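Complex 330.
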Amino acid sequence: MALKEELAEHIRAQGPITIAEYMERCVSHYYATRDPFGAGGDFTTAPEISQIFGELIGAWIEDRWQHISGAQAVLCELGPGRGTLMKDILRVTRNSGLHESADVVLVEASPALRELQKRTLAYAHTRIRWQETLMNLPPLPLFLIANEFFDALPVHQYLEKEEKKVGLIMNQLAFLPDGKVVREASPACIAVMTQIAAHIQTHGGAALIIDYGYDDAVQGDSVQAVKAHQFIHPLDAPGESDITAHVDFAALKDVAASVGAYVWGVAKQGNFLNALGAQVRLLALGKHASPEQGASLRSGLERLVSYEQMGGLFKVMAVTSTPDVPSGFD
Ligand code: SAH
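Predicted structure with S-adenosyl-L-homocysteine bound:
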């Protein structure tokens, strides 16, 4: 049965469901049944656009690891997609102590994507394991990266007087009641951030969270659905489109600070990558590239850093266990 019919049957039997429950069921069906990334898929992410993204993040993590004196550690990624970002991180840190000292933990809910990641990372590191959630990390310093992970976590939406839900009108999925969303809240995002920050505060380490989202003005309805690189109505293709919400960075920062971790940002992705030396890296790679490869490296990086493209839309926040300013945030 298609997810649309499953949801309709569930709602007929039990009544309307929250936007959060709707999102959760759509997102898990969506990622369990496809590889959605790239030109032929539904959307493209930064590590799929340019290797420079993962290389700079790898250098950032290595720098943070050295700050806590290079001990045994866990290198963790949330929602690794095709595994490209972790592959680039492990390649650029291959000759470093971090590579030797870290166990790699990939948190991935989708069995299909876990298989894809296993293929991508087959020769990347000798100690990689997969988990469905962030539970039961060993009591070691944690170095964590999450790119476009938090936007996939479910949000509740509230109208002036009540919670917005998904019900049925004439047997079709419909917002019930519909109206102006005045507030969104994501207990799922808060729970994951609390766990990361508490772990880092207790055992040391650093985390980088990269996503589209907002840091100040209260947002109304930020839930969106994308299919084949186009926005569609979020109820039109449940489980067949990428449903996300903008990330409430102010809430993530509050909760990370409240457990005693140091919090940095948010910085615009463009500023962050340039501060880490994106242009220097581009020149270095360009020296060994054909003219065609050089042009593709330039246009890829431009897409990641330009304010009109991903460089302004995407934000970066960091959580650390030490009070010195991490690179990219000064
Ligand atoms: N970070 C990758 C992919 C982002 S897409 C990149 O930048 O290319 C979101 C990823 O998070 C997918 O791998 C998806 O399967 C995973 N995911 C979504 N919700 C999840 C959840 N609740 N728990 C674990 N993984 C989840």
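Residues 51-67 form the longest helix (17 residues).
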